[in-house]
Amino acid sequence: MVGPKKKREIDLGVVIGKIRMKNPITVASGTFGCGEELEELTELGKLGAIVTKTVTKRAREGNRPPRIAETASGMLNSIGLENGGIDRFIADKMPYLRNIGIPVIVSIGGERGNEFIELAERLDETDGVSGIEVNISCPNLEGKGQGLFSQDAKLTYGLVKKIKKATSLTVITKLTPNVTDITKIAKAACDAGSDALSLVNTYTGMAVNIHTRRPRLGNITGGLSGPAIKPLALKAVWDVYNSVDIPIIGMGGVATTEDAIEFIICGATAVALGSTNFVYPNKYVEIIDGLAYHIKSNKMVNMNALTGSLKVRKR
Amino acid sequence: MVGPKKKREIDLGVVIGKIRMKNPITVASGTFGCGEELEELTELGKLGAIVTKTVTKRAREGNRPPRIAETASGMLNSIGLENGGIDRFIADKMPYLRNIGIPVIVSIGGERGNEFIELAERLDETDGVSGIEVNISCPNLEGKGQGLFSQDAKLTYGLVKKIKKATSLTVITKLTPNVTDITKIAKAACDAGSDALSLVNTYTGMAVNIHTRRPRLGNITGGLSGPAIKPLALKAVWDVYNSVDIPIIGMGGVATTEDAIEFIICGATAVALGSTNFVYPNKYVEIIDGLAYHIKSNKMVNMNALTGSLKVRKR
Amino acid sequence: MKIQRRAKILSNKEIAPERFLMRCEEPAISSIAEPGQFLMVRCSDGPAPFLRRPFAFHSIRDNGFYILYQVIGPGTEVLSLREKGEGLDIIGPLGNSFSPASENGAVMVAGGVAVAPLVALAERLPKKARTNSIAIIGAGTKSHILCREEFRRLGIKVEVATEDGSAGRKGLATELLKKVIAQTENRKPKTAIYACGPKAMLKEVAKIAKQKRRRCEVSLEEKMGCGTGICLGCAVKTTSGIKLVCKDGPVFNAGDIIW
Amino acid sequence: MKIQRRAKILSNKEIAPERFLMRCEEPAISSIAEPGQFLMVRCSDGPAPFLRRPFAFHSIRDNGFYILYQVIGPGTEVLSLREKGEGLDIIGPLGNSFSPASENGAVMVAGGVAVAPLVALAERLPKKARTNSIAIIGAGTKSHILCREEFRRLGIKVEVATEDGSAGRKGLATELLKKVIAQTENRKPKTAIYACGPKAMLKEVAKIAKQKRRRCEVSLEEKMGCGTGICLGCAVKTTSGIKLVCKDGPVFNAGDIIW
Ligand SMILES: Cc1cc2nc3c(=O)[nH]c(=O)nc-3n(C[C@H](O)[C@H](O)[C@H](O)COP(=O)(O)OP(=O)(O)OC[C@H]3O[C@@H](n4cnc5c(N)ncnc54)[C@H](O)[C@@H]3O)c2cc1C
Ligand SMILES: Cc1cc2nc3c(=O)[nH]c(=O)nc-3n(C[C@H](O)[C@H](O)[C@H](O)COP(=O)(O)OP(=O)(O)OC[C@H]3O[C@@H](n4cnc5c(N)ncnc54)[C@H](O)[C@@H]3O)c2cc1C
Ligand SMILES: Cc1cc2nc3c(=O)[nH]c(=O)nc-3n(C[C@H](O)[C@H](O)[C@H](O)COP(=O)(O)O)c2cc1C
Ligand SMILES: Cc1cc2nc3c(=O)[nH]c(=O)nc-3n(C[C@H](O)[C@H](O)[C@H](O)COP(=O)(O)O)c2cc1C
Ligand code: FES
Ligand code: FES
After folding, report:
1. ipTM of the complex
2. Which residue's CA is minimally distant from atom 13 of ligand 1?
3. CB D180, CB D106: distance < 8 Å
4. For residue A187, what are the CA distances in angstroms to A61, A136, A171, B144, C196?
5. Which protein residues touch ligand 5 with a CB less than 6 Å away?
6. How would you classify the pairing of strands B170-174 and C38-42?
7. Are B50 and B100 contacting, i.e. CB atoms less than 8 angstroms apart?
8. What is chain C's pLDDT, residue by residue, as a tens digit (259 residues)?
9. DSSP 3-state assignment of D32?
């Protein structure tokens, strides 16, 4: 029973752990709020998934202003994880998030390991949560003292292991690029059972007002994001792609369809838009369309042939 | 015998080890050749010092093209330390360098420790060399396998110690920023007797041509430089300035007088222009003048009050 | 209702040294914009600057709006080079707006180019309120005193202070404010104060308002990443916790701000 | 002698789809420039693109020069927006130049916009040499065949090849080259070949030249960081080791290149 030759539909769908995304494009934690503020400017339902601003156990005030400084092709931020805490998040934000109709990935953060565990447990019982992004890479946490979890392979392993026990939701570990060898941390997260990795969080930096001789950020240092970091983030994704077998959500300076495709070619299963949302809140719609066009014009039918397709010739 | 009140002359001079620079502005290794090619376009004698392209024991062909790719506010390079080797350097380049009349800092590189020692010994006996910059941070060395010297505090310590024994010239250790905590490496170099530090070398990154699905660099990855990295480099300088007591030559994306002053305020004793030389070979002259103007209009008389003057208020 | 559009630039002129007035056509945004609200502007269609820049509605009329801006850095620099006929990528109207003044009018206080949104406020005052209103404009020097004529044309009295004494009273706008307040002490209900300008000035205005028990609204400025409430970059401490200048403001009751 | 100057843009026109011709005034650089040499151009005075871009002298005359370029990326995009009267920050003349052709003329082969420097070469040929010369221009399609008239005006015969057959012979410039070489087989001394274009084309030209024992110069392109010999970005392998396109080239003897 051979029917007439049908034009094959393009399928942009990808899978991250148990999460099925209808396309590989999502947003980076902290750069999209929970979607609400942008609903008039864009079509939230088109996203492959939404990743929330990082939520902590208790409410946090965040850092002193200024919290933003623009730099060449990028921006520094030192928000300091301002948020209302998990209770208010579940009460105020989850009803809205649930209603968008796309997978909801909740980013969680904390200073101590057990805060993460408690958060994971809470979200496990919360209706409408598809996955957890474990932000062990925020450079703007105060009182961190000995560095971030994700600057230490052992700490990363231990924490992810415990979080995996605390929840059956998909666990995505978000790593900092401010390390000597990100593949070591990635392997630790992978060995501990992380379902996927988000790469990368921001690069620590600073800027100075030479007239006042003060830092441009109230918190002195902050995290660099935006197009400036794209080459660095891309290498982090490529290196990790060659080291572990779990899916990667790539991010760092994505501003165009070409940027997103670069990340995919380097091995990212999904791609998140970050700072670009501040400038063009509707950009992801353009990128999803652009990606579909690229797939089509390269005579592919789904994401498989593109993901990790970098051609590297041996000498 | 009180004479008439004289207008005080501004003195931009700084000291790096035994090297007296008449102003704090120099050039980053590998971004200025040995000066020759630019002599028609600029006034070499105005530089505080010149730092040469890294020289290795034997001649090196460098990496396959393309070796350059532009990225947002920056560039990737994978030159691969192309150079004619120390013999040709001393024979062909030193006569010219000696003649410029400014301190000559020779950058040396290698894959094994004893190559560095041999190079240091050779330069120690060479007329006209004021200092050695130890490049243990080039991301474009082949066959490195286990990472760079300057990604490991112990290796850094051991190597610098030996080089210090091999020469009485001023030794400046150039570090990579691709580490979890640059202050640890800086301290190791300092403990080993390094007279100064150069911060930073390039950040490893990559770029992809989405149409060919090939890396934009023949060597796949390369080092990112230019304005994009300035916030990151500035933080590296500030962190190290707060950790060690030896002078720092700051670099990374310096393109304007303001940029140079930012580095100085964050603790750099001297500042090197890198990729900017490719675009504006005469920029340093403008920056030296701009710096003098800044010092004057802030009613200072020398570099002391500016260096490390970042105002950081405690909470 | 936030809208992203390409407005059409109708003119862009230097009306005082380094101060530009840009007129744009954009009916959808203008028809809903209120005095006090602002726009996020992509100053150039090129890659730099990366972020949008916030500008207040200076005047809302004729199917469009005006912005009045000072060239201060890379964003306003490229904005000043934009030409008639070009498209300008904007998001707006954003933030809250000034509350309407009573018939007793408004005391408006501005430092420098921050006078911009007060003109939009003045334009919407009922005629009676305008004759009872006064605009106090402070600046460093005479040539930086802006909008004097705009207020006068609306029938609003203007008082000027310059730091160098080149126009009006020598000194700060806040000193004039004290004088004006003393003069209108007996009016009931008390005239409200609306202030825009550097933080130090607003702080002083807030102090005066508190002492004299005047309702006082201030329009704050903070570095903005998005202008839409998603980056949390523009935080300000208030008596009821952290607020966002772009979403909860830019207009705040002076008494609510922890200065 | 390398000189950095702000040349004055006299015109900048789209002469074919995505192909622009820019004319600049700059006596100091033009008076010493030779065919085959190039300029490093800051395409915009703004921050992007960061690096300069290399362009060949397309024609050197009237106290200035022309460049002929294709819009291919961000640099050439902003260059195409530059207007008459503006200043253009350039460094030049850079690199080496073509060796003069004999009276027997030159066989010039170009692929696409890379025809640009061959016009400068043709202009400097002695009259006699020109009548003996031929220009072979290849491109994807008719509208991308450039400079046909320029060569004809100089008295040089032109043959055209297009990949889609929309003009001249259907096929590659190198196929035409073989034909032309066969026709001039008996001339003594043998006519030299000058070629500019994509690497694959140049490689083929080099092969033909070797077989037919013709002197052959090729102008190479490589990504350039500086254009002045300091970044070592533009390396090319030759029989006598690594050479720099910007300093030792862009013109090389075809036989010296390790393709
Ligand atoms: C709600 C709101 C409304 C505004 N309305 C107007 C207006 O109508 N007219 C106008 O001229 N400006 C207005 N501004 C300020 C304007 O946004 C800035 O001047 C502009 O963003 C500067 O951009 P730039 O790239 O030129 O300079 P930048 O490089 O961003 O800054 C240059 C210098 O100005 C300082 N600066 C920049 N932005 C601010 C700010 N928001 N507050 C205080 N200092 C700042 C920086 O610290 C720096 O020293 C408004 C700001 C806000 C938040
Ligand atoms: C000595 C020399 C002379 C040249 N003369 C001319 C000329 O007369 N007219 C002209 O149109 N172009 C010329 N070029 C090429 C020109 O420099 C590039 O097209 C230009 O730099 C592209 O800049 P962009 O920012 O627009 O694109 P980019 O973003 O730099 O590049 C866009 C695309 O073009 C490719 N590309 C860029 N530069 C080159 C290059 N040099 N060789 C091959 N592919 C490249 C890139 O890989 C990329 O895919 C010359 C190059 C050299 C080295
Ligand atoms: C203002 C701002 C706030 C951010 N907040 C968070 C956060 O709460 N949690 C987190 O994991 N990452 C946070 N990030 C990092 C982003 O999710 C992302 O990893 C980074 O910005 C790199 O992507 P980009 O270059 O596309 O912005 C924040 C970034 C910015 C710019
Ligand atoms: C093309 C290129 C070649 C370089 N070669 C060297 C080198 O040989 N040795 C070295 O220590 N650093 C080398 N560097 C790094 C620079 O010295 C400098 O550390 C880096 O570029 C950061 O400064 P910038 O952003 O101002 O360019 C090179 C950089 C570039 C762009
Ligand atoms: S500017 Fe982004 S939240 Fe206000
Ligand atoms: S382009 Fe820099 S050496 Fe040739």
Report:
1. 0.95
2. C55
3. no
4. 34, 15, 15, 21, 54
5. C 224-227, 229-234, 244, 246
6. unpaired
7. yes
8. 999 999 999 999 999 999 999 999 999 999 999 999 999 999 999 999 999 999 999 999 999 999 999 999 999 999 999 999 999 999 999 999 999 888 888 999 999 999 999 999 999 999 889 998 999 999 999 999 999 999 999 999 999 999 999 999 999 999 999 988 888 777 777 889 999 999 999 999 999 999 998 999 999 999 999 999 999 999 999 999 999 999 999 999 999 999 9
9. coil
What are the pLDDT digits (tens) for C127-152? Answer: 889 998 999 999 999 999 999 999 99
Over residues A290-297, the mean pLDDT reads 97
Cβ of A40 within 8 Å of Cβ of C235? The answer is: no
Which pLDDT score, from 0 to 100, does residue B132 have?
Answer: 98
Q: Which of B136, B171, B271, B275 to mutate to test the pocket of ligand 4 (most atoms within 8 A of CB)?
A: B275
Of A203, A275, A222, A216, nearest to C51 (Cα)?
Answer: A275
Q: Is the pLDDT of residue A143 over 60?
A: no
Between CA A223 and CA A218 the distance in angstroms is 13
Specify the residue with its C-alpha closest to ligand 2, atom 29.
Answer: D73
Cβ B207–A311 below 8 Å, yes or no? no
Mean pLDDT of chain C: 94
Burial A192-201 (b: 16+ CB within 10 A, else e): bebbbbbbbb
Amino acid identity, position A267: G
- The rounded distance, in Å, linking the Cα atoms of B55 and A87 is 61
Ligand nearest to the Cα of A63, by number: 3
Residues of chain C neighbouring A226 (CB-CB closer than 8 A): 50
Report CA Rg, chain C. 17
Question: Count of alpha carbons within 13 Å of D181, Cβ hemisphere only?
Answer: 23
Mean residue pLDDT of chain A comes to: 94
| Residue D48 contacts C where some CB pair is shorter than 8 Å | yes
Q: What is the mean pLDDT of residues B202-231?
A: 97
Task: Check: CB of residue B142 under 8 Å from CB of residue B56.
Answer: no
Catalytic residue flag (residue A34): no
> D69-128, pLDDT tens digit by residue?
999 999 999 999 999 999 999 999 999 999 988 888 899 999 999 999 999 999 999 988
Q: Whose CA is nearest to atom 5 of ligand 3?
A: A30
Specify the pLDDT at position A34.
Answer: 95
In this structure, the number of other CB atoms found within 10 A of the CB of residue B173 comes to 31
CA of D245 to the centre of ligand 6 (A): 7
